[in-house]
Each structure stands twice: as C-alpha cells, then as structure tokens.
C-alpha cells in the first residue's frame, strides 16, 4: 500500500538543501559540524 504523503523534491531542497544552509551563518556552522563528524551533508531523498 502506498503512503499518502507526496513530497516535492524541489520544495524540500529549498528548505533543507546545501545551498540554503550555506546562506546563513548557523547553516554553515551545522554543515561544518557534520563535516567534523564525517556525516553526509544532505539527506537522501
């Protein structure tokens, strides 16, 4: 059975994508934090 939620990839990336994060100071900090931990930068779709 399919789930009812249809997420738009584009809308999602606008909110949580790499470019969006790089725009703000706190976003860059969170990316650097993840890099230090050796985590993937963006979640899989």
Describe the structure in your own words.
This protein is mainly α. The protein has a domain at about 10-40. About 60% of the residues lie in helices and about 0% in strands. It has 3 helices and no strands. The chain has helices at about 10-15, 20-25, 25-35. About 0% of the residues are buried. The mean pLDDT is about 85.
The chain-level structural class is mainly alpha
Uncertain stretches of 5 or more adjacent residues: none
According to DSSP, the number of beta strands is 0
Helix count, per DSSP? 3
- What is the straight-line distance between the termini? 20 Å
Biggest sheet overview: none
Q: Summed up, what is this model?
A:
By secondary structure, this protein is mostly helical. The protein has 3 helices and no strands.
Descriptive key words:
0% strand; mainly alpha; 45 residues; single chain
Topology:
Layout: H1 9-16, H2 18-23, H3 25-37
């Amino acid at each position: 059975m399919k789930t009812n939620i249809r997420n738009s990839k584009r809308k999602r990336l606008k909110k949580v994508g790499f470019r969006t994060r790089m725009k703000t100071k706190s976003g860059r900090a969170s990316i650097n934090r993840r890099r230090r931990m050796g985590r993937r930068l963006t979640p899989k779709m």
